[in-house]
């Protein structure tokens, strides 16, 4: 029986509307199940050592619901290019290099280190179409204790010659990779990951739906991100109203699916996401960087659609989900203006919820400190951030962390019930 | 005769359209006048020591054209409040505390340190209405070698009781403060700084215009930032079409004026800014944070209006002008969408220009390494930012710095011809 007791200023969002803050509280976990938060330590734990983080903040681990690991190589570059130029100049040539495992090791190690240092405990990750490099990425994530769904991606059409599979080859390699990896790791699982509808033939989408069902796997892709992509899909599948219906037709939409962006959903598509229990990965930095637009997040939340946050490296350049929280508020204010003040903007507790419990539900009971949840926790030292902590409420301190903290402020991490730094 | 020779990868933007990059070049300054950039050191400098920064980047000092020093206390807080709630809860009560010089010293020191560490060599700064604290801020900036125009601000109407002057008191205190400070510093000068039109009576605006003229001072304020503020101005001055005409009436618009925001300019107001030679301080992070809107920067640039960048602490939470550059591109992409793809978005060289030479012209020949310019230079070590430098062009390296660097990457600074770190 492994019991962990953390002491500090405990902050989480059991509900979306407000923070629950317990100053100098005790967070107790037994065998990776949170037992409770206590202002005084219960009698039965008195003989167990307490990890005392003093005046630091203890928050749930951050969940990155959409990120391209190979694109970490060129994050922060090409940000004044249009999307297709950017893909052709940076994304595709870089991804092609991941055929080389020694190249892949260098950048996947750097990627996983950066995630861990920036407070992420869980992630849903695109690899490349190369099964060996993707399996290597999974090994590295396992070793660094980042709990993740990882995808060998599929692309067999509308892709550059040097980065394109055959339909049969794509499906065969995917199934072999699933068999090789699905029982190999403790923290990491394979996920079905079509790049997006334009680069996948209907044969591949159909086969991926069957593999997802056969092996009971999670699914990850992009949806309704920009008008160009959507135009291609409408032309190829004129019988369907929207991207969502195409994915659904191939058996790729259910409560184990996460879809990134969803900037231009139709009413029918919103309803479909809700019915299928799909999680939307909102990537606010990327939405602006690729000049795609602003998704109607308030509307999704009001409908009860599940939403988390993603860094979308390298459409986004920041790997820290705190930054995604800040950007989500910022972008929602521009949506508020765009909607003539109809769509109220997101609040600080709401974006914190999205970056923790909102994404965390995709992994089970994750992203909150309620009883029965797994212990993913980050310890944050905010003493370098300016005004002394005793002048601020805990709500103010976590808001300041969201806006001003960086990797220097994360001082300890726990993932799935184990210390991980 | 003081000669400084810096060696490294020299990057600047003599024109707005592209970077000029000189790998492993020599930048030579004599008595704070740049002589040139050389790939081989000219004979006459052979006996002068060279400061060799090896493979690091050498860029012009960054110019922050609009920032509220006292608001540094609460940066990163209240970012889901509406503007008036934020002013009443954070801005006004905090500013009132600057009556206390020991409080002011703590936060003004922290503010100036943060600016210096983040690559800023020049700034245009709001203080509070308190002359003693504002003079202290000027002393601190002088000591930290930040060249600045600093304002004791004026507010005698529509302000909270505890932070409001009488018209006569406001003008008398301003003139005394000008006399006390205008010849006292080497790097720092007083600037006429009405908070904005709503908080200044016409008597005060008239008096400030006269003081600006009498002492030949620079001028700094806010203009056409949001529809609420503009409504107050239209009601008070129905004879004028826009904020600009009101400032102009009081003699406050000329080529020594910088005005922040300018989100909702009228055509006449744009033309007026151009004719008067006013500099606009574009503060992209603040524009979103306070949900004000997106200014037509492309249109201003096409018209030949002068534009620089501002952090607008604490409407913005980031004090680094690199972040303002990144945010300016991001926001311009949303403007591009809003304008139905009419207003092309800003490029990386353009925002670099705005953050250096664009703002720098307000201070004289500043913000570029052309001959005759002052030597403001920052040395940037980008070796921690990922992909090895030898895989990237210098244009790519500076773009990556704009998006990923922070205070850790600035390793040396020169301001007005002197080493300053």
Overall tally of structural domains of chain A: 2
Low-confidence segments of chain A, ≥5 residues, pLDDT <50?
none
Q: Strand share of the residues of chain A?
A: 15-25%
Mean pLDDT of chain A, nearest integer?
97
Fill in the keyword field for this structure.
homodimer; 421 residues; Urease, subunit C, domain 1; TIM Barrel; 2 domains; nine-stranded parallel β-sheet; globular
Summarize it:
The first copy, chain A, is α/β, with parallel strands linked by helices and 421 residues long.
Give structural notes:
Chain A is globular, with a radius of gyration of 21 Å. In chain A, α2 (101-117) runs parallel beside α3 and α3 packs parallel to α4 (167-181). Chain A folds into two domains: 3-60 and 368-419, Urease, subunit C, domain 1; 62-363, Metal-dependent hydrolases (TIM Barrel, Alpha-Beta Barrel), CATH 3.20.20. Chain A is α/β, with parallel strands linked by helices and 421 residues long. The first copy, chain A, is built from 13 helices and 16 strands. In chain A, strands 5, 6, 7, 8, 9, 10, 11, 12 and 13 form a nine-stranded parallel beta sheet that branches. In chain A, α3 (131-144) links the parallel β6 and β7 (147-151). The two termini of chain A are 21 Å apart. The A-B interface holds A 72-80, 110, 285, 288-289, 291, 293-294, 317, 326, 329-331, 333-334, 336-338, 345-348, 385-387, 392, 396, 399-400, 402-404, 406 and B 72-80, 110, 285, 288-289, 291, 293-294, 317, 326, 329-331, 333-334, 336-338, 345-348, 385-387, 392, 396, 399-400, 402-404, 406.
